[in-house]
Design goal:
This protein is mostly beta strands and 184 residues long. The chain contains 1 helix and 10 strands; from the N terminus they run βββββαβββββ. A hairpin with a 2-residue loop joins strand 3 and strand 4. The longest helix has 6 residues.
Length: 184
Amino acid sequence: MKEGEFNNSFIVGASLRRGDIYKGTSHIYEDYDDKEDIANTDLSLLLRYSHFVAGGSFENMSFRFIMGFRSQYIGLQGWGSVETTSLDLHRNNAIPFFGGLMLIEEYPIGEVFRVGFSEHFSRNVYKVNSHEEGIGFYSSSHYNEFGFGTYLTYKNFSIEFRYGREIGEPRNRFYFMTHYAFFN
């Protein structure tokens, strides 16, 4: 993209996530590990001016703001959201902000093919089936994660693999994502 030029994209994507999500004690006081096997849809609208990017994304009906900087070979992207339904946050008076920061390195190979790498740090939220006094209901909790990934892009289609490791806990997550950009 040239200096001072506007460019907008509507992106449709999907992701599969697998890994360890949390450990704890159920209402019958037995230890358990819960596995995460989730598929997400993702709809994003990105507005670009020169090297700056801003927009929003809906991932399974959760909204996130996106902002960043992108040049031909390197980029920095941040995202954020607010979660107000978390019992864990209310009990611990924690900050209800979730989001992250990602450094992206990209290497063009020809006009339409690109290879990239990324490193991220994030504070994420996940759904928990809580057993409050014997009654099961869904709430949400949070975790901090760092990780890295790689992606391939051909024209407006991309595939990405990302690994994440929870900070302070031995929990690993694996992500496989695919996206298609319209109006790019």
